[in-house]
């Protein structure tokens, strides 16, 4: 893969981009959908007080939460769920397509935005507004496993050499999108500064109704029992697996080859247990403790 840094030309063809890497602030991003310009533009984005920003490290349940957020604001009108792909309903701020997609957003909803960028990239822009931030986190062992499988189907990411190497890279934080530990600690370190709600994959999985209710309240959009029922029905794993608007089947095979594995793969809590050897688990726990031990953060997942 070819690496590009700040100052690189933006005129690469689609094919060249597929195999390229944008290094931004020391973090590697797939060049297929990122450029130095798009990454820089995100950092200087002018938020509105009404904006809602979904922040995740990849594979933490981004698409799931995009679906939930769209459903919260659709007020019973399911047209967007059935006709607009998730990336058009809640576009990624740092991607090349953003400048176009943001102009197409439904003006009767608050703007739903998504990002995988680290906190330090967006904190300054966010502090100038009252935009609401939803940080979605997931047990990093499940994130790692999901990301490993995603690398196999995404044409814009290199095939992982082995699971063992993938674990090492994840723990070092040298993989695509940087360090999970820095991402989580960076964003959750801003809880006092920003209008930020932490939601976990695990709580949405275990207590979907209560989690959706909590989201509605945080977003100033309290939900009635009927609205809750509609949301719950359209954000299940089985519904989303069948919906081309969220299962990424709209993408051609060279971008996402789902004959090698599905984007909506397992959709469960604790699948890491079927992947980690006892040695890998032990190695992971040592790093997790060193990185998170005194962070003061509290999550609903267990590491064993
Ligand atoms: P798995 O690979 O563990 O199955 P992201 O959208 O951030 O890329 O995250 C993708 C992960 O979220 C995948 O995890 C996917 O299956 C899971 N996911 C997406 N929708 C889901 C849903 N409705 N219920 C449970 N998990 C879901």
Can you walk me through this structure?
It is a single chain. By secondary structure, this protein is α/β, with parallel strands linked by helices. It has one domain (about 20-290): P-loop containing nucleotide triphosphate hydrolases (Rossmann fold). About 40% of the residues lie in helices and about 10% in strands. The strands form 2 sheets. Strands 5-4-6-7 form a 4-stranded parallel sheet, with helices on both faces. The chain has a 3-stranded mixed sheet with strand order 1-2-3. Strand 2 and strand 3 form a beta hairpin. Helix 3 (about 60-75) runs antiparallel to helix 13. The longest helix has 15 residues, at about 280-290. The two termini are about 35 Å apart. Bound molecules: adenosine-3'-5'-diphosphate (A3P). Adenosine-3'-5'-diphosphate (A3P) binds near residues 59, 265, 266 and 271. Adenosine-3'-5'-diphosphate (A3P) binds next to helix 3, helix 8 and helix 14.
């Amino acid at each position: 893969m070819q690496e590009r840094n700040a100052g690189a030309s933006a005129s690469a063809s689609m094919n060249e981009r597929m195999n390229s890497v944008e290094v931004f602030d020391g973090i590697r991003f797939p060049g297929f959908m990122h450029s130095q310009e798009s990454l820089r533009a995100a950092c200087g984005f002018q938020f509105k007080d009404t904006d809602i920003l979904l922040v995740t490290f990849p594979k933490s349940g981004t698409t799931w939460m995009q679906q939930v957020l769209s459903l919260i604001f659709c007020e019973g009108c399911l047209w967007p769920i059935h006709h607009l792909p998730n990336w058009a309903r809640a576009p990624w701020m740092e991607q090349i397509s953003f400048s176009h997609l943001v102009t197409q957003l439904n003006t009767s909803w608050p703007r739903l935005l998504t990002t995988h960028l680290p906190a330090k990239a967006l904190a300054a822009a966010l502090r100038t507004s009252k935009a609401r931030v939803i940080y979605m986190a997931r047990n990093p062992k499940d994130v790692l496993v999901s990301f490993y499988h995603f690398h196999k189907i995404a044409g814009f990411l290199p095939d992982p050499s082995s699971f063992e190497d993938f674990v090492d890279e994840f723990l070092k934080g040298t993989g695509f999108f940087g360090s999970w530990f820095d991402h989580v600690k960076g964003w959750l370190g801003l809880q006092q500064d920003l209008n930020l709600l932490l939601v976990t994959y695990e709580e949405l999985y275990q207590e979907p109704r209560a989690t959706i209710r909590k989201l509605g309240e945080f977003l100033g959009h309290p939900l009635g029992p009927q609205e809750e029922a509609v949301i719950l029905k359209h954000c299940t794993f089985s519904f989303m697996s069948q919906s081309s608007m969220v299962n990424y089947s709209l993408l051609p095979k060279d971008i996402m080859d789902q004959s090698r594995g599905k984007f909506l793969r397992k959709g469960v809590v604790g699948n890491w247990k079927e992947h980690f050897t006892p040695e890998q688990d032990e190695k992971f726990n040592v790093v997790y403790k060193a990185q998170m031990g005194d962070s003061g953060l509290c999550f609903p997942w267990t590491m064993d």
